[in-house]
Please model this.
Amino acid sequence: MPVADKPAPAPVQGGPISGSHLADQLARIEDKCARIEDKYARSEALLSRVEDKVENASTRMNEAARQSDLAALRTEVRAVGDRTKRLPGAGALVLTAVITAVLTVVLMVAVQRLNLQNLLPPPR
Model:
């Protein structure tokens, strides 16, 4: 089966095409091209606005996420602060250490005076 080339254009009935007819066709083609260009420009402007809106929405979402993270961090810091407020201060810790040392010395002296070292386990 032979491969056929493009079909030949159909002959125009009515004789040869005049120059004014060709100019009219060219004017119609130019009008259509202008309308297509206008539609393309409007579509491009619309896409640009959509892109701007998406960018703004993305920025707002990132900002909201940061605010949420900051709120969670503030809550955590507040909880740690509340826990540390209940801890004893440096003065109370020093006083506890001094009392512990004094009581240890007093008890060791009492053990030696009352001859209670025999109750202690022998050194190895």
The mean pLDDT is 84. The two ends are 112 Å apart (CA to CA).
